[in-house]
Amino acid sequence: MKYLIRHGQTDHNVRGIYQSTSDCQPLTPTGEKQILSIGRQLEPKRMTSILSSPSFRARQSASLLCHRLSLDAEICDWLAEVSNPKWAGLSKKFIQSKFSSDWKAWRDHPDTVYWGNLNRVLDDKARDVVFGMNRLRASSEDILVSHDHTLRSIMIQQCDLTISSHKKFSIPQGSLSLLDYTNGQPSKIRAMGLRFDDEGPCRISCNKSARIILVRHGATDGNASRIYQGLSSDLRLSHDGLQQMAFSAELLSKIEPTFIFTSELRRTQESAEILGFSKHPIQDSRLNEFDYGHWVGKTESEVMSQFPDEYRKFYDGSHSQPIHEAESFEGFKKRIRDALFDIVKKLMSSNDIAGRTAIIVTHDVAARIAICELLKINPSTFVRFPICNGGISVIELSPGGYWRLVLHNALNTDIADRYDHAYF
Questions:
Q1: What is the DSSP letter of 91?
Q2: Which of 176, 149, 143, 155 is nearest to 21 (CA)?
Q3: Of residues 131 and 20, which shows the higher confidence score?
Q4: CA torsion, ordered 32, 33, 39, 43, to nearest 10 deg
Q5: What is the pTM of this model?
Q6: pLDDT in tens, 240-260
Q7: Which pLDDT band, with edges at 50, 70 and 90, does 320 fall under?
Q8: CA distance 268 to 273
């Protein structure tokens, strides 16, 4: 596992000043607390190394972690932030007015920006990332302390996503992301944008942006036994599932949603009820889980041994080997897409969309496909976005009018719970 940490908050972050590779900003007291809180979460784990960007704000963040975890930091140039020196030290408002077209290009089409280089900026950063990540062993537990755009580049490159998807992610200051890294194989984003305080994971706060919050239902006995449930199995939440959703309710306690949607299956309806919002959930059959056909009722190990080709083709994203008696994956993607279209339309049916929030309580593969559809990335990459029972992902409407992922798989539990055993 690779632990990607964006440096703590600086005064320039607070004031909306573009930092780039400028090296004069220490962390604010809030920024120090952010990093120390992450350190407390990582302390029980046995880390291999800490690697840091050369920027002072990253080195200071790494130093706080080193003290907490009894490790030394290695400074790595390939972790430096993507740079436009002529913007450094300028407020974002000034940049937007003085360099309007350049700013919009960087915000909305960063994969096309050169900034005077011979190569596109993000192409150069991708090469840096490949060089740096190839030095790391897949089995090592490494902490990488860096910056928003560099960490995005690492996730996108390692997950085999296109550079054009760079704008579809945003990583907040003082946050932790988990990358399940394997040399030569596409990685998985186990979590993204996690923030902590003295009491544990931070509650999700209100926001001026329109948002869609995806919540996977709590666990059932079928999840615990790693049995495929799909559409035809309608189990209730287990004791663990009830507890998971109570934890999720804590994380969402500051949110007052505009709408709540669930599938027609009991496990999502029970989950929505535990969240405790005053709004009455709207049931939508299009949000039901994928119908796994003859996999339903079988354990994952049984499916792997009895139907190895179907299993491999389903999870490699090609779906060239249809699952017997299952719904078509194209049909499944279309019903999720159609449901999202109607939800977004309903969410935007106001002259003032600021802060309007739709919460969707749904299922494993349905939530993953929803992420891909909202971000407009290839749905075959759904396997890159695992989400635990009770996990929460937040997708917000950017100033450029596109949806971007700002939080993925938030849980009110230890970060170790984001391994494979917790995803079924």
A1: B
A2: 149
A3: 131
A4: 140
A5: 0.93
A6: 999 999 999 999 999 999 999
A7: low
A8: 9
CB 394 within 8 Å of CB 211: yes
The conformation of residue 160, written as its DSSP 8-state character, comes to T
Q: Are 64 and 37 in contact (CB under 8 A)?
A: no
What's phi and psi for 197, nearest 5 deg? -130, -165
Q: How far is CA 344 from CA 282, 368, 386, in A?
A: 14, 17, 23
Collapse the DSSP code of 84 into the 3-class scheme (helix H, G, I; strand E, B; otherwise coil) and give the result.
Answer: coil
Strands 282-283 and 211-216: unpaired
**What is the number of residues in the chain?**
424
Of the candidates 81, 46, 45, the residue with the CA atom closest to the CA atom of residue 61: 81
- Answer yes or no: are the C-beta atoms of 242 and 188 closer than 8 Å: no
CB count within 10 Å of CB 48 equals 13
Supply the pLDDT for residue 107: 84
Which uninterrupted H or E stretch holds 133?
Answer: helix 121-133
Enumerate residues 6+ apart whose C-beta is below 8 A from 49: 71, 74, 140, 142, 143
pLDDT for 420 equals 54
- Closest to 274 measured CA to CA, from 229, 251, 234, 243: 243
Task: Give the separation between CA 8 and CA 28, rounded to whole angstroms.
Answer: 8
Q: Which residue type does 34 have?
A: Q
Written as six digits, the tokens of 8 are: 């703590």
Q: Where are the alpha helices (DSSP H) in 214-328?
A: 221-224, 239-251, 266-275, 300-306, 308-315
> For residue 196, which of 182, 214, 179, 175 has the smallest C-alpha distance?
175
Tokens of 269: 């309806």
Q: Work out the percent of the chain whose per-residue pLDDT is above 90.
A: 57
Q: What is the DSSP string of 332-387?
A: HHHHHHHHHHHHHHHHT-SS--TT-EEEEEE-HHHHHHHHHHHHT--GGGGGGS--
Q: What is the pLDDT of residues 327-365, one digit of tens each?
A: 999 999 999 999 999 999 999 988 888 889 999 999 999
pLDDT value of residue 278: 85
SS3 67: helix
In whole angstroms, what is the distance from residue 206 CA to residue 45 CA? 32
Judged on CB neighbours under 10 Å (0-12, 13-18, 19+), 152 is buried
pLDDT at 104: 87
Among positive and negative, which fits the CA dihedral 101, 106, 112, 117?
positive
